[in-house]
Amino acid sequence: MSKGERTAPVILITGAGGQVGTELIRGMSLLGRVVAVTRSECDLGRSEQVESMMNEVGPAVILNAGGYTEVDRAESDSVIAHRVNAEAPGVLARAASRMDALLVHYSTDYVFSGEKATAYTEEDEPNPLSVYGESKLAGERAVMEAGGKHYIFRTSWVFGLRGANFLKSIARAARTRDALSVVADQFGAPTSAALVADVTALAVRAYLRDDRPLANGVYHLAASGETNWYDYSRFIVDTLSRAGVPMSTAVDAIRSIGAADYPTAARRPANSRLDTSKLRKALGVEFPQWEAGVRDVLLQIAASKDVLQ
Fold first, then answer.
1. Domain that holds residue 43
2. Residue 292 has pLDDT above 60, yes or no
3. 187 pairs with which residues across the strands?
4. Domain count, the chain
5. The domain spanning residue 25 has which CATH number?
6. Are 67 and 44 within 8 A, CB to CB?
7. DSSP letter, residue 278
8. 227-228 and 187-188: which strand pairing?
9. Residue 234 falls within a domain, yes or no?
């Protein structure tokens, strides 16, 4: 190694096969040597695998994009949900603290009850309605209790080309069904996995360069603006139709219903809006409107229709 040359920091990404993990691999590639592991390579539900992975890789930064995300199934599978969403972050955080590494952990709007009339800030008291929300909140607390360097990014309504999400579900349904009924009394901001990765890259870059790094703590990361599932669905169908994708459901054939008319195993917050001013100010950036990210992914889908097969 020549004088002044530094070894590239190792950046470990868990959940690398998911929608956020996939985008993180792209976003981190210029910042260090990426080690990306999928569930088959490291099951977050098995603490011994997590500890072994951390010892083997010895990362400078850990991005924990893995998690148990089947919200309704978690109601009857709470043990596994807590192992993955609550216990595993604690294992990662304690190992990161021993190694003096930074842990970036991703959480959710589901830690809130949704009863607040305005957007939630990081200072608002969490009160989850579901097992999924409870497990994610427990994971946040485990990370903070470990006492190491950490950023906890709460996000909402995440979508991307990879994995299962609302955007792709509506797009698929609208191609084969004559009409859809979609909940109109739950509000939030659809947030692209690409935006999550881009913001994470900014935060990690500042940390690695010691250039005004973020303080340890919780931050809200979501696209700007707000919508509800019904209007979101109409935007999806209209955008795909205009892009030339054959749709069986016309925009006017999408009917609005209340959450009470669409019962699910897990209760969802009626208000998932997150106030992102703390993170935007800390990084000195603005977040794009939710429509921009949704349109970008939909146009990629239109250009590669096999994504919806």
1. 10-164+190-224+274-288
2. yes
3. 228, 271
4. 1
5. 3.40.50.720
6. yes
7. H
8. antiparallel
9. no
Does residue 306 lie within any of the structural domains? Answer: no
Read off the tokens for 270: 């009626």
What is the DSSP code string of 66-83? -----TTGGGT-HHHHHI
Q: Where are the alpha helices (DSSP H) in 5-119?
A: 19-28, 47-57, 78-82, 88-99
Token representation of residue 147: 């006492």
* Helix spans in the chain (H): 19-28, 47-57, 78-82, 88-99, 131-145, 166-176, 193-209, 229-242, 277-283, 290-303
pLDDT tens, position by position, 1-59: 344 446 889 999 999 889 999 999 988 988 999 999 888 787 787 888 888 888 888 89
The answer to the question of residue 119 being in a domain is: yes
**Residue that is written with structure tokens 């309605």 in the block:** 129
- Give the amino acid at 289: Q
**Residue 265 belongs to some domain of the structure:** no
Active site residues: 132
* Whether the predicted pLDDT of 305 surpasses 70: no
Q: Which residue has the tokens 């690398």?
A: 16
